[in-house]
Protein backbone atom coordinates (compact mmCIF):
# COMPACT_ATOMS: atom_id res chain seq x y z
CA UNK A 1 0.00 0.00 0.00
CA UNK A 2 1.08 3.50 -0.74
CA UNK A 3 1.59 5.39 2.53
CA UNK A 4 1.62 8.97 1.35
CA UNK A 5 1.12 10.64 4.68
CA UNK A 6 -1.46 13.05 3.31
CA UNK A 7 -3.56 15.08 5.70
CA UNK A 8 -6.92 14.20 4.15
CA UNK A 9 -9.45 11.88 5.80
CA UNK A 10 -10.23 8.43 4.48
CA UNK A 11 -13.26 8.24 2.14
CA UNK A 12 -16.20 9.33 4.19
CA UNK A 13 -18.16 6.09 4.16
CA UNK A 14 -20.47 7.28 6.96
CA UNK A 15 -21.46 10.34 4.92
CA UNK A 16 -22.12 8.14 1.86
CA UNK A 17 -24.27 5.71 3.90
CA UNK A 18 -26.29 8.55 5.38
CA UNK A 19 -26.89 10.04 1.95
CA UNK A 20 -28.05 6.68 0.66
CA UNK A 21 -30.59 6.49 3.47
CA UNK A 22 -31.70 10.01 2.75
CA UNK A 23 -32.13 9.77 -0.99
CA UNK A 24 -35.72 10.70 -0.37
CA UNK A 25 -37.91 11.61 -3.34
CA UNK A 26 -38.44 15.26 -2.21
CA UNK A 27 -34.72 15.90 -1.79
CA UNK A 28 -33.96 14.25 -5.09
CA UNK A 29 -36.65 16.30 -6.85
CA UNK A 30 -35.31 19.56 -5.37
CA UNK A 31 -31.77 18.58 -6.38
CA UNK A 32 -32.82 17.78 -9.94
CA UNK A 33 -34.77 21.03 -10.16
CA UNK A 34 -31.63 22.97 -9.22
CA UNK A 35 -29.72 21.17 -11.94
CA UNK A 36 -32.44 21.77 -14.52
CA UNK A 37 -32.28 25.51 -13.66
CA UNK A 38 -28.54 25.47 -14.37
CA UNK A 39 -27.45 26.00 -10.75
CA UNK A 40 -24.07 24.71 -9.62
CA UNK A 41 -23.93 22.06 -6.91
CA UNK A 42 -21.26 22.84 -4.30
CA UNK A 43 -19.49 20.45 -1.90
CA UNK A 44 -21.63 21.22 1.17
CA UNK A 45 -24.92 20.84 -0.71
CA UNK A 46 -27.12 17.78 -0.47
CA UNK A 47 -26.59 15.41 -3.39
CA UNK A 48 -27.72 11.86 -4.13
CA UNK A 49 -25.15 9.23 -3.20
CA UNK A 50 -25.08 8.05 -6.82
CA UNK A 51 -24.25 11.58 -8.08
CA UNK A 52 -21.37 11.74 -5.60
CA UNK A 53 -20.14 8.26 -6.51
CA UNK A 54 -20.26 8.95 -10.25
CA UNK A 55 -18.47 12.28 -9.89
CA UNK A 56 -15.72 10.72 -7.79
CA UNK A 57 -15.28 7.99 -10.43
CA UNK A 58 -15.16 10.42 -13.33
CA UNK A 59 -13.01 13.16 -11.77
CA UNK A 60 -10.63 10.63 -10.25
CA UNK A 61 -10.19 8.88 -13.63
CA UNK A 62 -9.60 12.26 -15.21
CA UNK A 63 -6.95 13.16 -12.60
CA UNK A 64 -5.17 9.83 -13.13
CA UNK A 65 -5.28 10.43 -16.90
CA UNK A 66 -3.43 13.70 -16.47
CA UNK A 67 -0.58 12.29 -14.42
CA UNK A 68 -0.27 9.08 -16.44
CA UNK A 69 -0.71 11.18 -19.59
CA UNK A 70 2.48 13.06 -18.76
CA UNK A 71 4.50 9.85 -19.14
CA UNK A 72 4.48 9.13 -22.91
CA UNK A 73 5.37 12.75 -23.72
CA UNK A 74 7.74 12.96 -20.75
CA UNK A 75 9.97 10.29 -22.31
CA UNK A 76 10.63 12.76 -25.16
CA UNK A 77 11.88 15.68 -23.05
CA UNK A 78 15.50 14.58 -23.36
CA UNK A 79 15.09 13.87 -27.08
CA UNK A 80 12.97 16.83 -28.23
CA UNK A 81 14.39 18.33 -31.43
CA UNK A 82 15.90 21.63 -30.34
CA UNK A 83 15.92 23.85 -27.29
CA UNK A 84 12.61 25.63 -28.07
CA UNK A 85 10.67 22.35 -28.44
CA UNK A 86 12.33 20.98 -25.30
CA UNK A 87 11.30 24.00 -23.23
CA UNK A 88 7.74 23.86 -24.54
CA UNK A 89 7.48 20.13 -23.80
CA UNK A 90 8.84 20.53 -20.27
CA UNK A 91 6.24 23.24 -19.63
CA UNK A 92 3.43 21.10 -21.09
CA UNK A 93 4.32 18.03 -19.04
CA UNK A 94 4.50 20.19 -15.92
CA UNK A 95 1.06 21.63 -16.75
CA UNK A 96 -0.44 18.14 -17.09
CA UNK A 97 0.75 17.24 -13.59
CA UNK A 98 -0.75 20.53 -12.37
CA UNK A 99 -4.07 19.48 -13.96
CA UNK A 100 -3.88 16.24 -12.00
CA UNK A 101 -3.40 18.31 -8.84
CA UNK A 102 -6.46 20.48 -9.58
CA UNK A 103 -8.58 17.45 -10.34
CA UNK A 104 -7.53 15.47 -7.26
CA UNK A 105 -8.47 18.56 -5.24
CA UNK A 106 -11.89 18.66 -6.92
CA UNK A 107 -12.47 14.93 -6.26
CA UNK A 108 -11.42 15.35 -2.60
CA UNK A 109 -14.29 17.80 -2.08
CA UNK A 110 -16.56 14.77 -2.55
CA UNK A 111 -15.01 12.87 0.35
CA UNK A 112 -12.43 10.51 -1.15
CA UNK A 113 -8.88 11.12 0.00
CA UNK A 114 -5.96 11.66 -2.35
CA UNK A 115 -4.26 8.69 -0.74
CA UNK A 116 -7.22 6.39 -1.48
CA UNK A 117 -7.31 7.62 -5.10
CA UNK A 118 -3.59 7.02 -5.63
CA UNK A 119 -3.92 3.58 -4.06
CA UNK A 120 -6.76 2.72 -6.42
CA UNK A 121 -4.68 3.87 -9.39
CA UNK A 122 -1.64 1.85 -8.35
CA UNK A 123 -3.63 -1.29 -7.57
CA UNK A 124 -5.28 -1.12 -11.02
CA UNK A 125 -8.75 -0.59 -9.52
CA UNK A 126 -9.24 2.86 -11.09
CA UNK A 127 -9.18 3.48 -14.80
CA UNK A 128 -7.44 6.23 -16.74
CA UNK A 129 -7.68 7.27 -20.37
CA UNK A 130 -7.06 4.48 -22.90
CA UNK A 131 -4.76 6.66 -25.02
CA UNK A 132 -1.93 6.71 -22.53
CA UNK A 133 -1.42 2.95 -22.72
CA UNK A 134 0.30 3.23 -26.09
CA UNK A 135 3.96 4.06 -26.63
CA UNK A 136 5.20 7.37 -28.07
CA UNK A 137 7.60 5.78 -30.55
CA UNK A 138 8.81 8.83 -32.47
CA UNK A 139 8.80 12.63 -32.20
CA UNK A 140 5.79 12.60 -34.54
CA UNK A 141 3.84 10.77 -31.82
CA UNK A 142 4.44 13.76 -29.55
CA UNK A 143 3.07 16.07 -32.28
CA UNK A 144 -0.02 13.86 -32.72
CA UNK A 145 -0.64 13.71 -28.96
CA UNK A 146 -0.13 17.47 -28.54
CA UNK A 147 -2.39 18.31 -31.47
CA UNK A 148 -5.12 15.68 -31.68
CA UNK A 149 -5.32 14.23 -28.16
CA UNK A 150 -5.24 17.66 -26.58
CA UNK A 151 -7.88 18.73 -29.13
CA UNK A 152 -10.04 15.74 -28.18
CA UNK A 153 -9.61 16.62 -24.51
CA UNK A 154 -10.61 20.22 -25.17
CA UNK A 155 -13.82 19.15 -26.96
CA UNK A 156 -14.75 17.09 -23.89
CA UNK A 157 -13.66 19.63 -21.30
CA UNK A 158 -15.05 22.82 -22.82
CA UNK A 159 -18.46 21.11 -22.88
CA UNK A 160 -18.26 19.62 -19.39
CA UNK A 161 -16.95 22.88 -17.85
CA UNK A 162 -20.57 24.06 -18.17
CA UNK A 163 -21.77 21.13 -16.08
CA UNK A 164 -23.39 20.96 -12.67
CA UNK A 165 -20.63 20.32 -10.12
CA UNK A 166 -18.93 23.62 -9.21
CA UNK A 167 -15.44 22.43 -8.23
CA UNK A 168 -15.08 20.19 -11.33
CA UNK A 169 -16.31 22.96 -13.66
CA UNK A 170 -13.92 25.51 -12.21
CA UNK A 171 -10.99 23.08 -12.51
CA UNK A 172 -11.95 22.32 -16.12
CA UNK A 173 -12.19 25.99 -17.02
CA UNK A 174 -8.66 26.60 -15.85
CA UNK A 175 -7.37 23.41 -17.48
CA UNK A 176 -8.92 24.43 -20.81
CA UNK A 177 -6.90 27.67 -20.93
CA UNK A 178 -3.70 25.68 -20.63
CA UNK A 179 -4.87 22.91 -22.97
CA UNK A 180 -5.53 25.52 -25.67
CA UNK A 181 -1.90 26.49 -25.42
CA UNK A 182 -0.83 22.84 -25.59
CA UNK A 183 -2.94 22.43 -28.68
CA UNK A 184 -1.09 25.33 -30.33
CA UNK A 185 2.31 23.81 -29.60
CA UNK A 186 1.08 20.40 -30.83
CA UNK A 187 -0.35 21.95 -34.00
CA UNK A 188 2.88 23.84 -34.62
CA UNK A 189 4.98 20.65 -34.31
CA UNK A 190 2.45 18.79 -36.48
CA UNK A 191 2.59 21.43 -39.26
CA UNK A 192 6.37 21.51 -39.17
CA UNK A 193 6.53 17.76 -39.80
CA UNK A 194 3.71 17.83 -42.36
CA UNK A 195 5.49 20.51 -44.39
CA UNK A 196 8.98 19.11 -43.81
CA UNK A 197 11.10 16.54 -45.62
CA UNK A 198 9.57 13.36 -47.10
CA UNK A 199 11.03 11.43 -44.13
CA UNK A 200 9.32 13.80 -41.67
CA UNK A 201 5.97 13.48 -43.48
CA UNK A 202 6.29 9.67 -43.52
CA UNK A 203 7.04 9.68 -39.80
CA UNK A 204 3.96 11.83 -39.14
CA UNK A 205 1.72 9.69 -41.37
CA UNK A 206 2.91 6.57 -39.55
CA UNK A 207 2.15 8.15 -36.16
CA UNK A 208 -1.33 9.22 -37.37
CA UNK A 209 -2.05 5.69 -38.59
CA UNK A 210 -1.11 4.21 -35.21
CA UNK A 211 -2.94 6.82 -33.10
CA UNK A 212 -6.18 7.05 -35.07
CA UNK A 213 -7.96 4.15 -33.39
CA UNK A 214 -6.98 5.12 -29.80
CA UNK A 215 -8.19 8.68 -30.58
CA UNK A 216 -11.54 7.36 -31.81
CA UNK A 217 -11.73 5.31 -28.59
CA UNK A 218 -10.90 8.37 -26.45
CA UNK A 219 -14.52 9.61 -26.35
CA UNK A 220 -15.73 6.32 -24.88
CA UNK A 221 -17.88 3.52 -26.25
CA UNK A 222 -20.82 4.22 -28.60
CA UNK A 223 -23.89 5.72 -26.93
CA UNK A 224 -25.81 2.48 -27.23
CA UNK A 225 -23.15 0.73 -25.12
CA UNK A 226 -22.13 3.56 -22.73
CA UNK A 227 -23.25 2.53 -19.26
CA UNK A 228 -23.05 5.88 -17.44
CA UNK A 229 -24.02 8.46 -20.06
CA UNK A 230 -27.76 8.59 -19.54
CA UNK A 231 -27.63 9.39 -15.83
CA UNK A 232 -24.61 11.67 -16.15
CA UNK A 233 -26.25 13.68 -18.90
CA UNK A 234 -29.47 13.95 -16.92
CA UNK A 235 -27.42 15.31 -14.02
CA UNK A 236 -25.39 17.60 -16.35
CA UNK A 237 -22.06 16.07 -15.47
CA UNK A 238 -21.59 15.07 -19.09
CA UNK A 239 -22.90 17.82 -21.35
CA UNK A 240 -22.88 15.73 -24.52
CA UNK A 241 -22.93 12.03 -25.31
CA UNK A 242 -19.81 10.09 -26.33
CA UNK A 243 -20.94 9.92 -29.97
CA UNK A 244 -21.79 13.63 -30.07
CA UNK A 245 -18.37 14.59 -28.69
CA UNK A 246 -16.67 12.25 -31.17
CA UNK A 247 -18.66 13.86 -33.97
CA UNK A 248 -17.72 17.37 -32.81
CA UNK A 249 -14.06 16.38 -32.80
CA UNK A 250 -14.22 14.85 -36.28
CA UNK A 251 -15.99 17.94 -37.58
CA UNK A 252 -13.34 20.31 -36.30
CA UNK A 253 -10.13 18.33 -36.83
CA UNK A 254 -10.42 15.88 -39.74
CA UNK A 255 -10.47 18.77 -42.26
CA UNK A 256 -7.31 20.18 -40.63
CA UNK A 257 -5.51 16.85 -41.16
CA UNK A 258 -6.77 16.39 -44.71
CA UNK A 259 -5.86 19.93 -45.78
CA UNK A 260 -2.22 19.05 -45.08
CA UNK A 261 -2.46 16.18 -47.61
CA UNK A 262 -2.28 13.56 -44.85
CA UNK A 263 -4.64 10.59 -44.69
CA UNK A 264 -6.52 8.86 -41.91
CA UNK A 265 -6.57 5.06 -41.86
CA UNK A 266 -10.30 4.64 -42.41
CA UNK A 267 -11.59 4.52 -46.01
CA UNK A 268 -15.18 4.94 -44.76
CA UNK A 269 -14.47 8.25 -43.00
CA UNK A 270 -16.67 10.99 -44.50
CA UNK A 271 -19.10 13.63 -43.41
CA UNK A 272 -22.71 13.03 -44.34
CA UNK A 273 -23.66 16.58 -45.23
CA UNK A 274 -27.38 15.77 -45.08
CA UNK A 275 -27.26 14.65 -41.42
CA UNK A 276 -24.19 16.63 -40.32
CA UNK A 277 -22.83 13.38 -38.84
CA UNK A 278 -19.52 11.75 -39.63
CA UNK A 279 -19.57 8.18 -40.89
CA UNK A 280 -16.69 5.88 -40.03
CA UNK A 281 -15.71 2.27 -39.58
CA UNK A 282 -16.43 1.27 -36.01
CA UNK A 283 -13.09 1.07 -34.20
CA UNK A 284 -12.29 -2.26 -32.56
CA UNK A 285 -14.19 -1.98 -29.26
CA UNK A 286 -12.80 -5.29 -27.98
CA UNK A 287 -9.36 -3.69 -28.09
CA UNK A 288 -10.72 -0.63 -26.26
CA UNK A 289 -12.10 -2.71 -23.38
CA UNK A 290 -8.92 -4.80 -23.25
CA UNK A 291 -6.78 -1.64 -22.98
CA UNK A 292 -8.88 0.14 -20.34
CA UNK A 293 -8.95 -3.03 -18.26
CA UNK A 294 -5.18 -3.32 -18.05
CA UNK A 295 -4.31 -5.25 -21.22
CA UNK A 296 -2.85 -2.49 -23.41
CA UNK A 297 0.75 -2.40 -24.65
CA UNK A 298 1.96 -0.04 -21.90
CA UNK A 299 -0.43 -0.48 -18.93
CA UNK A 300 2.06 -2.42 -16.81
CA UNK A 301 4.92 -0.02 -17.60
CA UNK A 302 2.82 3.07 -16.81
CA UNK A 303 1.81 1.78 -13.38
CA UNK A 304 5.33 0.62 -12.64
CA UNK A 305 6.67 4.14 -13.25
CA UNK A 306 3.98 5.66 -11.01
CA UNK A 307 4.77 3.12 -8.26
CA UNK A 308 8.45 3.99 -8.51
CA UNK A 309 7.59 7.70 -8.22
CA UNK A 310 5.34 7.13 -5.21
CA UNK A 311 7.94 5.07 -3.40
CA UNK A 312 10.82 7.41 -4.13
CA UNK A 313 8.80 10.51 -3.25
CA UNK A 314 7.59 9.17 0.08
CA UNK A 315 10.35 10.83 2.10
CA UNK A 316 9.45 14.20 0.59
CA UNK A 317 5.78 13.85 1.51
CA UNK A 318 6.73 12.73 5.01
CA UNK A 319 9.02 15.70 5.47
CA UNK A 320 6.31 18.09 4.24
CA UNK A 321 3.52 16.63 6.36
CA UNK A 322 5.44 16.16 9.61
CA UNK A 323 7.52 19.31 9.99
CA UNK A 324 7.91 18.64 13.73
CA UNK A 325 10.10 15.62 12.94
CA UNK A 326 12.44 17.76 10.84
CA UNK A 327 15.85 18.46 12.32
CA UNK A 328 15.99 22.04 13.54
CA UNK A 329 18.85 24.22 12.48
CA UNK A 330 20.77 26.22 15.05
CA UNK A 331 19.63 29.84 15.29
CA UNK A 332 21.75 32.17 13.21
N1 LIG B 1 -10.46 5.58 -21.35
O1 LIG B 1 -20.27 4.71 -19.68
P1 LIG B 1 -19.10 5.20 -20.39
C1 LIG B 1 -5.61 14.61 -21.29
C2 LIG B 1 -14.77 3.54 -19.46
S1 LIG B 1 -6.27 13.66 -20.06
C3 LIG B 1 -10.63 4.75 -20.30
O2 LIG B 1 -19.33 5.90 -21.67
P2 LIG B 1 -18.32 7.63 -19.01
C4 LIG B 1 -4.17 14.72 -21.47
C5 LIG B 1 -15.65 4.21 -18.42
O3 LIG B 1 -14.85 4.68 -17.33
C6 LIG B 1 -8.00 13.90 -20.25
N2 LIG B 1 -11.83 4.30 -19.88
O4 LIG B 1 -18.19 6.11 -19.42
C7 LIG B 1 -3.32 14.43 -20.42
C8 LIG B 1 -16.58 3.09 -18.04
O5 LIG B 1 -15.90 2.17 -17.22
P3 LIG B 1 -16.34 1.94 -15.66
C9 LIG B 1 -8.82 12.66 -20.18
C10 LIG B 1 -12.90 4.76 -20.55
O6 LIG B 1 -17.45 7.86 -17.86
C11 LIG B 1 -1.94 14.45 -20.62
C12 LIG B 1 -16.77 2.35 -19.36
O7 LIG B 1 -15.65 2.69 -20.18
N3 LIG B 1 -10.19 13.10 -20.18
O8 LIG B 1 -6.35 15.17 -21.99
O9 LIG B 1 -19.76 8.04 -18.94
C13 LIG B 1 -1.42 14.77 -21.88
C14 LIG B 1 -18.08 2.71 -20.04
O10 LIG B 1 -18.03 4.02 -20.65
C15 LIG B 1 -12.79 5.66 -21.61
C16 LIG B 1 -11.08 12.73 -19.23
O11 LIG B 1 -10.78 11.92 -18.38
C17 LIG B 1 -11.50 6.06 -22.02
N4 LIG B 1 -11.29 6.89 -23.06
O12 LIG B 1 -17.73 8.45 -20.28
C18 LIG B 1 -2.29 15.07 -22.91
C19 LIG B 1 -12.43 13.42 -19.27
N5 LIG B 1 -14.04 5.94 -22.07
O13 LIG B 1 -15.88 3.18 -14.93
C20 LIG B 1 -3.66 15.07 -22.73
C21 LIG B 1 -13.37 12.99 -18.17
C22 LIG B 1 -14.90 5.23 -21.31
O14 LIG B 1 -17.82 1.75 -15.64
N6 LIG B 1 -14.06 11.77 -18.50
N7 LIG B 1 -14.21 4.51 -20.39
O15 LIG B 1 -15.57 0.72 -15.22
C23 LIG B 1 -15.18 11.71 -19.26
O16 LIG B 1 -15.66 12.72 -19.77
C24 LIG B 1 -15.86 10.37 -19.40
O17 LIG B 1 -15.33 9.50 -18.42
C25 LIG B 1 -15.71 9.70 -20.79
C26 LIG B 1 -16.41 8.32 -20.73
C27 LIG B 1 -16.40 10.54 -21.85
C28 LIG B 1 -14.24 9.50 -21.19
Written description of the protein model:
This is 1,2-phenylacetyl-CoA epoxidase subunit A. Keywords: Oxidoreductase. It holds the Pfam family PaaA_PaaC. With 332 residues, this protein is mostly helical. The protein has one domain: Ferritin, core subunit, four-helix bundle (Ferritin, Up-down Bundle), CATH 1.20.1260. 63% of the residues lie in helices and 2% in strands. It contains 13 helices and 2 strands; from the N terminus they run H-H-H-H-H-H-H-H-H-H-E-E-H-H-H. The chain has a two-stranded antiparallel ribbon. Helix 6 (139-160) runs antiparallel to helix 7 (166-194). The longest helix is centred in the middle third of the chain and has 29 residues, at 166-194. The two termini are 41 Å apart. Residues 1-11 have low confidence and may be disordered. Bound molecules: benzoyl coenzyme A. Benzoyl coenzyme A (BYC) binds at residues 57-58, 61-62, 65-66, 69-70, 96, 127, 129-130, 145, 149-150, 153, 156, 160, 217-221, 226-229, 232, 238, 242, 292.
Amino acid sequence: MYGGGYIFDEPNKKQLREEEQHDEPEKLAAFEERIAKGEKIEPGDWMPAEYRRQLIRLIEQHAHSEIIGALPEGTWITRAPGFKRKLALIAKVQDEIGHGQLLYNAAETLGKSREAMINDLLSGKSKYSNVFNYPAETWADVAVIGFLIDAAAIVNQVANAKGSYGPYCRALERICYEESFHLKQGHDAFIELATGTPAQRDMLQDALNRWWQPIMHFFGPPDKVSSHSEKLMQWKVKMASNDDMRNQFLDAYVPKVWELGLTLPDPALRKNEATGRWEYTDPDWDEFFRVINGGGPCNAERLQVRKWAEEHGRWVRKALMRPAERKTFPAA
